[in-house]
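> example.struct
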């Protein structure tokens, strides 16, 4: 039979749709035609595959070869289909049995010598192959990554001849054995290294316990960046599902060592970053900083220095937890469930309100500086805190209980309570969940409504305030929200948005 079918996977965002490589040999002048909407890199695979087969001492058929990458309306790019194309040609020519390819998917780029080179985006393909009930053949460099999909049979190969011997039952390959997904911890900077700033540490604890967005405002040198860098060390470790999601994003974005993947991401883009760098994009859409911060922290230092149009693109992801990048031919959806932590100065010079009177900014300059941040964006930040300058002490003595380990234990207890009660962190509660899990007494409800009216808070701000109060109650393991929790939550909201 001169028709062979090989299974492979494309890469579209963080998804791996199935691609069927069909190879047909017919009589006629020796040619090789590749169809199925291939991009330039896929078209070049014809020459790579021909040289790899010949240099592996295998026969390249001198016949009319037609290769179809189905479905035809799905764009294909990269060298990930080289191995599947080569196997399809060899199977159609009778050099390997066609039936041996039925329950196997293949990924890999071929060198001219027949060696198999690694490709990006293997983990999403591995998860999809496992769900389809097939084994996966990958380059040896990608084997550890593919084995993160537990329950998947993985074959790791270095050369095309290894696969020919395996499929012909001459030298069968053993499934690759790895440790699978191991959650490895790397020490984060400790909270005890922050001098003073009791109120800021409390806000950091609340933000970690409920996954709330946080904004620090204060003069230079007060520890805003120092505090933000301690947040990942307070968050609970990733569970297996979250770790796989983070790993899949890193697999698509860039080759990152496996030992860094199970960590909660901490992204710190410079304020000169463009909108595409922040949310993703390009002719072949790639994930941006907000997707790379999925299940982690996105820290924006010097927040007003970002272009306003760049900051405005954060509004929808902060609400929905995802970003949709639309192109003429397709829409690609990237996950973006991140925790925003931002820092800013109170004025252009940074010393507004300093007791020494160092600020020389006019009221117009201050207003222009603050107008760089829109009300709708600030409305989506749950905790606003002014960080004051502490007294100078070159050798401060920290309290023995003022460290990340103790704070993380409180956060873990609060998060466990939230998972048992509603299945998510408080910051992600929807309106029905808010009504169910954040009930108030009649007196407290009227008191809160009156306070929101006096502070001219929007309805969104009131809902976020209620979520913060729920987190404060969870930190105390309290079943109901009290007036004290509402009062403390109000302190984290500015009077005007």
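> example.seq
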């Amino acid at each position: 039979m001169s028709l062979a079918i090989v299974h492979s996977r494309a890469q579209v965002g963080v998804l791996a749709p199935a691609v069927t490589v069909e190879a047909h040999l017919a009589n006629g002048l020796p040619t090789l035609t590749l169809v199925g909407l291939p991009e330039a890199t896929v078209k070049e695979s014809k020459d790579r595959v021909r040289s790899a087969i010949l240099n592996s001492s295998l026969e390249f058929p001198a016949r009319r070869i037609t290769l179809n990458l189905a479905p035809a309306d799905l764009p294909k790019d990269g060298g990930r289909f080289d191995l599947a194309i080569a196997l399809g040609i060899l199977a159609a020519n009778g050099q390997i049995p066609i039936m041996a390819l039925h329950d196997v998917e293949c990924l890999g780029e071929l060198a001219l010598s027949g060696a198999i080179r690694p490709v990006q985006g293997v983990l999403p393909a591995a998860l999809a192959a496992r769900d389809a009930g097939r084994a996966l053949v990958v380059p040896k460099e990608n084997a550890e990554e593919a084995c993160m999909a537990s329950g998947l049979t993985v074959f790791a190969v270095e050369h095309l001849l290894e696969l020919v011997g395996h499929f012909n039952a001459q030298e069968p390959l053993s499934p690759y054995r790895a440790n699978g997904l191991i959650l490895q911890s790397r020490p984060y900077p400790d909270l005890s290294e922050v001098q003073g700033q009791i109120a800021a540490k409390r806000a950091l604890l609340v933000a970690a316990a409920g996954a709330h967005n946080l904004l620090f405002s204060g003069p230079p040198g007060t520890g805003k960046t120092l505090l933000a860098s301690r947040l990942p060390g307070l968050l609970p470790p990733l569970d297996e599902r979250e770790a796989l999601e983070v790993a899949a994003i890193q697999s698509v974005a860039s080759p990152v060592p496996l030992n860094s993947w199970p960590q909660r991401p901490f992204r710190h883009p410079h304020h000169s970053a463009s909108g595409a760098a922040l949310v993703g994009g390009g002719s072949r859409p790639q994930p941006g900083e907000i997707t790379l911060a999925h299940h982690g922290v996105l820290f924006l230092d010097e927040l007003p220095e970002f272009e306003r149009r760049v900051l405005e693109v954060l509004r929808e992801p902060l609400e929905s937890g995802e970003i949709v990048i639309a192109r003429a031919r397709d829409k690609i959806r990237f996950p973006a469930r991140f925790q925003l932590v931002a820092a800013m100065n109170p004025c252009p010079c940074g010393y507004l309100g300093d007791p020494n009177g160092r600020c020389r900014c006019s009221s117009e300059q201050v207003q222009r500086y603050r107008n760089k941040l829109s009300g709708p964006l600030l409305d989506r930040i749950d905790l606003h805190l002014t960080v004051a300058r502490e007294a100078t002490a070159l050798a401060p003595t920290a309290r023995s209980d003022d460290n990340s380990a103790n704070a993380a234990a409180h956060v873990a207890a609060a998060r466990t309570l939230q998972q048992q009660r509603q299945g998510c962190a408080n910051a992600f509660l929807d309106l029905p969940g808010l009504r169910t899990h954040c009930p108030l007494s009649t007196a407290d409800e009227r008191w809160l409504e009156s306070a929101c009216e006096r502070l001219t808070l929007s309805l969104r701000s009131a809902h976020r305030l209620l979520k913060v109060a729920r987190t404060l109650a969870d930190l105390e393991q309290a079943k109901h929200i009290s007036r004290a929790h509402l009062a403390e939550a109000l302190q984290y909201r500015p009077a005007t948005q």
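> remarks
The domain at 3-167 is CATH 3.30.230.10 (Ribosomal Protein S5; domain 2).
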